[in-house]
């Protein structure tokens, strides 16, 4: 299994991918929009999805709702990355199936800990879970 990052900003995608590589040796794929990410989810299995809230064409929430309709993704952790800190968004996202949130700009230690927590024993650096 692999990690999927759904992020339209190439710089943000590169940063998140770099941080993820510090936690896991799994393959990390990046999709620049929700439609591409959905196609990948239909053909591959991902262990965790890291999804930007604002995406072109389809919002991160729309993507999460669509991917949660797929049996193989009903229990997959979904981390939403957003600069928006409105409580309403948090409620809507949780209702759509988002597991956790990260605020932009992404803080490296918090991101690595969150990813390690979700990957569990498969994390490259399990000590990050207690960091």
The CATH architecture term is 3-Layer(aba) Sandwich
CATH superfamily: Response regulator
Q: What share of residues is helical?
A: 40-55%
Total count of domains = 1
Oligomer: single chain
Briefly, what CATH class?
Alpha Beta
| Biggest sheet character | 5 strands, parallel
Based on helices, strands and strand pairing, what is the structural class? alpha/beta
Radius of gyration: 13 Å
The fraction of residues in strands falls at 15-25%
Mean of pLDDT = 90
Shape: globular
As residue ranges, the low-confidence spans are: 126-131
Structure at a glance:
Helices cover 40% and strands 19% of the residues. The chain is an alpha/beta fold and 131 residues long. It has one domain: Rossmann fold (3-Layer(aba) Sandwich).
Explain this structure to me?
The protein has 131 residues and is α/β, with parallel strands linked by helices. The protein has a single domain, classed as Response regulator (Rossmann fold, 3-Layer(aba) Sandwich), CATH 3.40.50. The chain is 40% helix and 19% strand. It contains five helices and five strands, in the order βαβαβαβαβα. It has helices spanning 10-21, 34-43, 60-68, 87-96, 108-119, and strands at residues 2-6, 28-31, 46-52, 78-82, 100-103. It has a five-stranded parallel β-sheet with strand order 2-1-3-4-5, with helices on both faces. Helix 1 links the parallel strand 1 and strand 2 (28-31). Residues 126-131 have low confidence and may be disordered. Pfam families: Response_reg. Residues 2-119 form the Response regulatory domain. The modification 4-aspartylphosphate is found at residue 52. Keywords: Phosphoprotein, Plasmid, Transcription, Transcription regulation.
